[in-house]
Specification:
alpha+beta, five-stranded mixed beta sheet
């Protein structure tokens, strides 16, 4: 199949709002793939090539002096082969070698094809082709039951290989996929509730647990062999020897554990999120130690627990990893749950998770069985620039560049603004139309797809918190920012200051 057909499908999916139409488009694409194209195609649609991260940044891509092809001739196999060659290129002369490979790929691609390839390489593909849509499309294209497809993807942790099984193997192949120690599974995900009370109206009697601001881990043990995986199922065993040692000492020979890891300071308080992530991502251990906090167990010594209720899994977890469990209380009393949530916050954590005690482990799914409750912070910030939209947002100004007020001029001119983040979330179509017209009138200059505007528009932004960041001059970046509303009643001088954001930093 031509790469251009993937591009056309991705553009069509991005431009379509109806979920059923997206699924139909993707199912049609899958039905036309050759067997050997299925795995690379799914990886490319998810901006997760089967070769893994290629280590290529925006600067490398933008500096390629290449004229693109006028007609489509590039195939999925061509793209996959080039990615494999890029991943294998290392050592002396690798910089020039990788640049030549990229230039060759870029010259064979048309401009739209290269645009999509660039976003795949950078992991910035936003086509609406999310895993849930792809699972439904695979089920429709293969004629398999969606529950069987979803469960196989959950247990293999590999949507691309699940698609291959469904589309090329006999019907029973999906049913034969089982839980296996050493093979990571997709993690169960949580939805959001505004309050503990709201969450417990959904779950009833619940397990209420500390919500840590750490890194998700899944740990597999078979004898003395312990493997640690990230939320995205990357193997990071070599980076976390302290977690490996903890699990090796647990009273079981075979385990699959789900949890978080968090770095603590000398007083036992949680370190800032970026400190944990810096240690978690480091290739060698440092003085900052990571502590595991387990909240679920999927397998113990030959017994699969994934279909058991949470209450049963928790009892098994207590038996094998009690000292390393996350703080938890089982209760049907909303007041008791709220008091527990307050203790979590006072201890420096994000909030709580409220979980249905009767629910099985629905790996890879975000439902109402797990609900996260944490405070939402709002700040009034100023729009400094807006980016041209792509896909369904083509023709609109979308992604906002947000600035906090800098009255003392610590990071620029006194009374100016310092950038603290971007967001395209929370924007309805009506709001996109309004801001496109509004900011077009306020344009001061452009740089590529970025439209810089007069810093006069105040917008209320909801965030989950902030983190230290060298990316922005103020040293702080917003976490999970989304638009609440524009504030025409406020002037730029009413915006929140960089100091008010920096005050939220821990550590």
């Amino acid at each position: 199949m031509l790469w251009g057909e993937i591009v056309q499908a991705a553009d069509a999916v991005a431009a379509t709002r109806a979920r059923s139409a997206k699924v139909t488009m993707l199912a049609d694409l899958f039905a036309r793939l050759a067997p050997e194209e299925i795995v690379p195609a799914v990886g490319l649609l998810l901006a997760a090539p089967r070769q893994g991260r290629l280590g290529i940044g925006w600067r490398s891509l933008s500096s390629l002096p290449v004229a693109h092809a006028d007609e489509a001739s590039l195939t999925i196999a061509d793209v996959d082969a080039t990615f494999s060659a890029l991943a294998a290129t290392a050592g002396a002369g690798s910089v020039a070698g990788r640049r030549n490979l990229l230039a060759g790929l870029a010259s064979r691609a048309t401009s739209p094809e290269w645009n999509l390839l660039s976003r795949v390489i950078l992991g910035e593909l936003r086509t609406g082709a999310l895993e849930g849509l792809l699972l439904e499309a695979v089920a429709r294209a293969s004629g398999r039951d969606i529950a069987a497809v979803r469960r196989a993807a959950m247990l293999t942790g590999d949507l691309a290989d699940t698609a291959r099984l469904a589309l090329t193997e006999a019907p029973g192949a999906l049913d034969r996929v089982g839980l296996a120690v050493g093979r990571p599974v997709l993690p169960m995900l949580a939805s959001t509730a505004a309050s503990v009370g709201e969450a417990m109206t959904v779950t009833g009697s619940a397990s209420v647990e500390y919500k840590l601001d750490g890194a998700r881990i899944q740990v597999h043990r078979s004898g003395d062999d312990v493997r640690v995986y990230t939320r995205s199922l990357a193997d990071v065993t070599a980076r976390v020897p302290e977690i490996v040692e903890v699990v090796r000492k647990l009273p079981a020979r075979q385990l699959i554990l789900d949890g978080e890891t968090l770095a603590l300071d000398e007083a036992g308080a949680p370190r800032a999120f970026q400190d944990t992530m810096a240690r978690f991502g480091a290739e060698t251990a440092s003085q900052i130690a990571l502590r595991p906090w387990f909240f679920d167990v999927l397998h113990v010594d030959g017994r699969d627990l994934i279909d058991e209720p949470l209450s049963v899994r928790q009892d098994a977890l207590e038996a094998v990893a009690g000292p390393w469990r996350i703080p938890v209380v089982r209760t049907s009393d909303i007041t008791a749950a709220e008091e527990f949530a307050e203790r979590s916050l006072s201890n420096g954590h994000e909030g709580v998770m409220v979980k249905d005690l009767h629910a099985p482990y629905a790996a890879g799914r975000r439902g109402s069985a797990w609900l996260k409750v944490k405070p939402v912070h709002t700040f009034d910030l100023v729009v400094l620039a807006v980016e041209e939209g792509s896909g369904r947002r083509s023709g609109w100004l979308s992604n906002l560049h947000l600035g906090a007020r800098d009255p003392a001029g610590l990071f620029g001119e006194p009374g100016g603004f310092v950038m603290v983040g971007k967001t395209f979330k929370g924007l309805s179509d009506d709001l996109l139309r309004w801001q496109t017209a509004h900011f077009s009138d306020l344009q001061t200059h452009r740089s590529g797809h970025i439209v810089f505007v007069e810093p006069v528009t105040v917008v209320e932004i909801a965030i989950d918190g902030v983190q230290r960041s060298p990316r922005y001059p103020g040293g702080v970046a917003l976490r999970f920012a989304r638009v609440r509303t524009y504030r025409p009643d406020k002037r730029p001088d009413d915006a929140d200051t960089i100091d008010s954001l920096r005050a939220m930093l821990r550590g």
